[in-house]
UniProtKB/TrEMBL annotation:
Protein name: POT family-domain-containing protein
GO terms for cellular component: membrane
Residue stretches spanning the membrane: 118-137, 149-168, 174-193, 238-256, 262-283, 501-524, 530-550
Pfam families assigned: PTR2
Keywords carried by this UniProt record: Membrane, Transmembrane, Transmembrane helix, Transport
Length: 593
C-alpha cells in the first residue's frame, strides 16, 4: 500500500468538515516500528456526490441539463398540438354551414346543433381513447413505438379529412362519411399520442442513479445541488409552453378557411403531423426508450376486487392476507399492492380536474359566443380566444425564470399541489369576471338580455369585445400553475408500470368534463348566462378550497416542491437512505410538504 502523510491524517481528524465521509482504513508510514495501523480518516468527496445535511441547507439548487431527446419530444408536442388545433378550429364552420351560404363559410350544412354534438364527440373520443393508448404503451409496445404508431393513425385521420374536403369529393357526397371516419381515426390517434407524449418527455430526463440529488461544481467554481425534481418541473413547463405555441395554428387555419378553402386549412395540420412522425423516426437513437413493463390490468382488476371484498382495503389483497383468510395463492407480491395503492392515492389528486376542464372549455364555446354579441370592430370573434395561449406563452417563462427561483431563494414551499390549487383559484376568478362581462353585455343596448335577437336592428350590444382580455389572462395564469404541475405530478407519483396509465387518468378527466358540459348545456342560453358563469366560478372556488384542505400535505411519491424538499418513493418517517460518495448509508431528514 502506498504511504500516506500523517499530517493529512491529523488535519482530517482535527477538522473533518474539510473532507467527505469518515471511514477506517489501514495506512502505512515511514520511520515507524509499526507496519500498519487502522486510523479513522476523512476521505475526499467525489466531484459528483449526494449532498450532506450541511450542503442541503447551504447550497443553491438548480435543475439538470435537459438532453437533446427531451427537446425533440417538446418539438413533437408542438407539432402534435399544431395539428390538433389546426383541425379543430375550422371544424365547427365546416360542419355547421352550407357551401352556398353567402354570409358564412361552410361545407356540410348540418346546422349548429349537429356541429356541436360532433365536436363534443371528438373531444370525448380523444380523452376516452387515451386509456387505450396508455395500456398499449405500458403493456405491450412501450412509449416510443406507441407514439410512432399513434402518429401514423393521427396522420391517416387528417388525410381522410383533407381528401373528403376537396371540392370534387364534396360534389360527390363524400363529405359526411369522410368526416365521421376522420373523426374516429383522428380521435384515436390524438388520444394515443396525448397519453404518451407527457411521460415520454420525462423519460428523457430520468435520473439513472438512485439519488435524485447530487452536488456538482459549475464552470464558475460554485458548488450547487442538481435537483431532479426541478429538472422535471422545467421540462414540463417547456413542454406545455411548446403546446401553447402550437395551438396558435388555429389562427392560420381559420384564415386559410376564409381566404382559400377548407382543404387548405386541413392540409396544413396534415403536414405538421408528418413533421412529428419524421422527428420520431429520425431521432430514434437520441431517445431514452424504456421497455414495456407488461400489462398489469388483469392482475390489478383482480387485486381491486379482492380489496373491495375485504372492506375496500387494499391490504386485504396482500398475498399473506389472501393465504391466511382464503387459503388462496395470488400471482403477485406485496410490492405490486403497494404500487397500486400509490397509484390510487395519486389518482385522487385528479378528481378536481373535471370541474377545471369544464371551466376551461368555455374558451372554445360560450366565450366565443359572448364575443359575437359584442362590438368586435372587424376582428373575427373566434380569434379573440387566442389571447389565452398568448397569455400562457408570455406568463409561463416569467414564472419559470423569475417567480419559482425567487421562492426557492426565500425558502418558500411551493409544491405541485399548491401550484395546482393556485391555478384553480385563478380559474375561479376568470369565470367570475366572465359573469361580470356577461352582465355588462345584458345592460347594454340595443338588445340588452337578448343579444342579436331584437327587432328591427338586431346588432351586437354596445360593449367592446376587448374587455374580455382579463378573462384570457386569468385563464392563462390558471393554466401556468395547474397544467404543467399536473403532468409533473402524474409522472413522478406513478409507479414505473403505471406511468402512461396515470397520465391517461389525468387526460381522461376531460371525458367527464365533456359529460358535465352536456348535462348543464341547457343553462347556456340568454338570459341565463350570468348565472351560468357564476355557478362555474362558485363550483371552482369550492373545489379549490376542498382540494387544498384535502391534499396540501400530500406531496406524492417521489415528489419535490420548488424549494427543493424531496420525498422519495421508498422513504420512511425517519427520512430516506442515501449513499454518500464513499458508499456508506446515511440517514437524511426530510420536511413534510
Amino acid at each position: 500500500m502506498s504511504p500516506i502523510d500523517l499530517s493529512i491524517v491529523q488535519v482530517a481528524i482535527e477538522d473533518p468538515s474539510k473532507y467527505g465521509s469518515q471511514r477506517s482504513i489501514p495506512i502505512s508510514y515511514h520511520d515507524s516500528s509499526h507496519s500498519a495501523e487502522s486510523v479513522a480518516v476523512q476521505t475526499l468527496p467525489s466531484i459528483v456526490h449526494p449532498p450532506t445535511n450541511q450542503e442541503l441547507e447551504t447550497l443553491r439548487r438548480i435543475g439538470g441539463k435537459i438532453p437533446l431527446g427531451a427537446w425533440l419530444v417538446a418539438i413533437i408536442g408542438f407539432a402534435e398540438r399544431f395539428s390538433y388545433y389546426g383541425v379543430t378550429t375550422p371544424l365547427q364552420n365546416y360542419i355547421q354551414n352550407a357551401r352556398d351560404d353567402p354570409l358564412r363559410h361552410g361545407a356540410l350544412g348540418l346546422g349548429q346543433s349537429s356541429a356541436t354534438r360532433l365536436s363534443y364527440f371528438l373531444t370525448f373520443l380523444v380523452y376516452a381513447t387515451s386509456f387505450g393508448g396508455a395500456i398499449v404503451a405500458d403493456g405491450w409496445l412501450g412509449r416510443y413505438k406507441s407514439l410512432t404508431f399513434f402518429a401514423s393513425v393521427y396522420a391517416l385521420g387528417i388525410l381522410i379529412l383533407f381528401i373528403t374536403s376537396l371540392p370534387v369529393s364534396l360534389n360527390h357526397g363524400a363529405g359526411l362519411g369522410g368526416l365521421i371516419a376522420a373523426i374516429i381515426i383522428f380521435g384515436v390517434g390524438a388520444g394515443g399520442m396525448k397519453s404518451n407524449l407527457a411521460p415520454f418527455i420525462a423519460d428523457q430526463c430520468a435520473e439513472p442513479s438512485a439519488s435524485s440529488l447530487r452536488v456538482i461544481e459549475t464552470s464558475t467554481g460554485e458548488r450547487v445541488i442538481v435537483d431532479q425534481a426541478l429538472t422535471l418541473q422545467r421540462i414540463y413547463s417547456i413542454y406545455y409552453w411548446c403546446g401553447n405555441v402550437g395551438s396558435l395554428s388555429g389562427v392560420a387555419t381559420a384564415l386559410l378557411e376564409r381566404h382559400v378553402d377548407f382543404w387548405a386549412a386541413f392540409l396544413l395540420p396534415f403536414c405538421s403531423i408528418w413533421v412529428a412522425f419524421a422527428l420520431l423516426v429520425l431521432g430514434n437513437r437520441k431517445f431514452v426508450k424504456p421497455p414495456a413493463k407488461g400489462t398489469i390490468l388483469p392482475q390489478a382488476m383482480k387485486a381491486f376486487w379482492f380489496g373491495a371484498r375485504g372492506g375496500f382495503k387494499m391490504d386485504a389483497a396482500m398475498p399473506a392476507a389472501q393465504l391466511s383468510k382464503h387459503q388462496r395463492v395470488v400471482p403477485w407480491e406485496d410490492t405490486f399492492i403497494h404500487e397500486l395503492k400509490r397509484g390510487l392515492l395519486a389518482c385522487r389528486v385528479f378528481l378536481a380536474w373535471p370541474i377545471l376542464l369544464l371551466c376551461q372549455s368555455q374558451i372554445s364555446n360560450n366565450l366565443v359566443s359572448q364575443a359575437a354579441t359584442m362590438e368586435t370592430r372587424g376582428v373575427p370573434n373566434d380569434l379573440i380566444s387566442f389571447l389565452n395561449p398568448v397569455s400562457v406563452i408570455v406568463l409561463l417563462p416569467l414564472a419559470e425564470q423569475l417567480l419559482y427561483p425567487a421562492l426557492r431563494k426565500a425558502k418558500i414551499t411551493f409544491s405541485p399541489i399548491n401550484r395546482m390549487a393556485l391555478g384553480f383559484l385563478f380559474e375561479s376568478f376568470a369565470q367570475a369576471y366572465a359573469s361580470g362581462i356577461q352582465h355588462l353585455v345584458y345592460t347594454a343596448g340595443p338588445c340588452y338580455d337578448a343579444p342579436l335577437k331584437c327587432a328591427p336592428n338586431p346588432g351586437p350590444n354596445h360593449a367592446n369585445v376587448w374587455v374580455q382580455t382579463p378573462i384570457y389572462v386569468l385563464e392563462g395564469l390558471g393554466e401556468v400553475f395547474s397544467s404543467p404541475s399536473a403532468y409533473e405530478y402524474a409522472y413522478d407519483a406513478a409507479p414505473p408500470s403505471m406511468k402512461s396509465l396515470l397520465q391517461a387518468v389525468l387526460v381522461g378527466m376531460g371525458a367527464l368534463a365533456v359529460l358535465l358540459g352536456l348535462a348543464i348545456s341547457p343553462l347556456y342560453r340568454d338570459p341565463l348566462l350570468v348565472v351560468s358563469y357564476a355557478v362555474l366560478s362558485g363550483s371552482m372556488f369550492v373545489t379549490t378550497v376542498v382540494y387544498f384542505c384535502a391534499f396540501r400535505t400530500h406531496g406524492g411519491a417521489g415528489m419535490a416542491d420548488t424549494s427543493g424538499v424531496v420525498h422519495s418513493a421508498g422513504e420512511d418517517k425517519e427520512g430516506p437512505v442515501e449513499k454518500e460518495s464513499g458508499g456508506e448509508a446515511v440517514q437524511r431528514s426530510s420536511t413534510t410538504l
